[in-house]
Amino acid sequence: MSPVIEIPQRIRTERLVLRPLVRTDLDDIHAYQSDPEVVRFLPWPVRNRDESAGHLAQRMSRTRLEKDGDNVALAIDVEGTVVGDLTLIVASAENRGAEIGWVLHPDFRGRGYATEAARAGLGLLFADWGAHRVAAKLDPRNVASAAVCMRLGMRHEARFLHNELLKGEWLDTDVYAILEDEWRGRGSS
Ligand SMILES: CC(C)(COP(=O)(O)OP(=O)(O)OC[C@H]1O[C@@H](n2cnc3c(N)ncnc32)[C@H](O)[C@@H]1OP(=O)(O)O)[C@@H](O)C(=O)NCCC(=O)NCCS
């Protein structure tokens, strides 16, 4: 049977709270979604406030991981400020494959928040959803994101050349992944 979970109300880590997005997060989220540097390696353009509001509403309506393509977003909350978000995606329910992604406001980088949030996200995927494999896909030029993968114990598995036509450019895609046994072998951290 395919695994199913509802997005949890709150996950506490050492320094962060991961929680569902709410409407009042708009200002915090728009602050980084409107920054060209933040979206440089992401598959969407900078968003104006209305676009961020529409995107937020869409993401707030997605609360369940069950079928292929299902995705949920969790706010990365530091003392009431949303400093970024984590996305969890069902790549294949049949094969218990998931994907994970992360974004931080530039002012909150360099403190390990993305890695700390993503560790909790891996915990949710492996321990609660029952993932067998979790992957991250990124532009090879995105060295900060690759470093997050390595800190999480993910392995660089593949590079697909000219895999995507994005913003008028053919882009390569790197795939990093970690298996359930490997995650458990790291003491689940
Ligand atoms: C990818 C992204 C989230 C990485 O952010 P980041 O701040 O570099 O990653 P972390 O939050 O894990 O922080 C790690 C850094 O904090 C440092 N750090 C400080 N205190 C730390 C702590 N307590 N624990 C761990 N790391 C700590 C680490 O040494 C590391 O620094 P370094 O890069 O100089 O080696 C960020 O660059 C980003 O949002 N980019 C734009 C969006 C994007 O491209 N997302 C990925 C799409 S695939």
Structural class: alpha+beta
Percentage of residues in strands: 35-45%
Overall shape: it is: globular
Give, in order, the helices and strands: EEEHHEEEEHEHEEH
Helical run tally: 5
Q: What name goes with the CATH superfamily?
A: Gcn5-related N-acetyltransferase (GNAT)
Q: Write down the CATH topology.
A: Aminopeptidase
User: What gap, in angstroms, lies between the N and C termini?
Assistant: 27 Å
| Count of individual beta strands | 10
**Mean pLDDT across residues:** 95
Q: What would a concise description of this structure say?
A:
By secondary structure, this protein is an alpha+beta fold. The protein has helices spanning 26-33, 49-60, 113-129, 143-151, 180-185, and strands at 5-6, 11-12, 17-20, 64-65, 71-78, 81-92, 97-104, 133-138, 155-166, 169-179. Strand 6 and strand 7 (97-104) form a beta hairpin.
Tell me the layout of helices and strands.
Elements: E1 5-6, E2 11-12, E3 17-20, H1 26-33, H2 49-60, E4 64-65, E5 71-78, E6 81-92, E7 97-104, H3 113-129, E8 133-138, H4 143-151, E9 155-166, E10 169-179, H5 180-185
Parallel strand pairs: 7-8
Antiparallel strand pairs: 1-4, 2-3, 3-5, 5-6, 6-7, 8-10, 9-10
Helix pairs in contact: 1-2
The structure holds coenzyme A (COA).
